[in-house]
Amino acid sequence: MKKTLFFLSFVALNTGLFAQAFLRPHEWKKYKREIYFTTGSANFLGDLGGRNRKGTDYSPADLNISQSRTAFGLGARYKFDKFFCVSAKLDYLLVKGNDNLTTDIYRNNRNLNFKSNIYEFSARIEGGIQRIKRGGGHYGVQKNYARYKNIAHNLMGFVGFGVFYFDPYGLTPQGNWVRLKPLHTEGEGLPGGPKVYKNYSFCIPMGGYYKLILKKIYAIGVEVCYRKTFTDYIDDVGTSYYDPVVLGQYYGPLAVQMADPNKGAIYGATKPDASGNPAQRGDKQKDTYVSIEVTFGYIFKQQRKSARLRSKF
Length: 313
What we know:
Mean pLDDT: 83
Distance between the termini: 62 Å
Radius of gyration: 28 Å
Number of helices: 4
Number of strands: 9
Order of helices and strands: HEEEHEHEEEEHE
């Protein structure tokens, strides 16, 4: 019994000393200002492409990994509290989708494709935990001081608001990429068609990241970010097929070709029904896109305040 009490007392004492050494109340203030760079891949969740299954709106389960493309970012972060930061970030992402890469019969027959460069600026608030390890000089802690004194772990979640620019291109059967918006593939702006969409929209970025800080100035980690947008035209697909005769009269045969390159595997799939209602080309859900990136950061050292000289007189 005495041995047990001694052991528990020893563990409690050392636990308290470690906690005191590793969790200094104001240590987080040394990590206030940071610039960071991110690089990785981006993917698209919208009307086009997807896996070999029925499409699932907004679900990462529908991501076609083969269509993942480049993502880069540059940002700045300010830590204003032990648990919270604010961050501003400029991103470049390339997203793609191709119906021909899925065996889902309806999307494969539709046979549409696109790619688009996305330029995004966002601001976000981040919250989570920061674990700072520092050694001490008691009960063997000094032995681990050199190993742990300059290491910090961050696990953060975030949500924000952003604006982005996009410009969808489509691949012709001849292998040429052409801008899709000028072709008005769904009759945008024509009689009975939808409004002409804009090349910019807003988004809500949300996600999280893990970051390891070394020597108080170098940071490396991984970030996952999902964007909910307020446009359905990142892929140039939003509503219904437009009358090809009228579309051809206004914008020519290329517009007709890019609007409906279907394979003919499903009879009448792109034609109006018996009541004259246009066939569905896309759904009403807004597009989304995601990125997963490795992050590299530099933290500016906190300037020490100069000590005031007190007069002896």
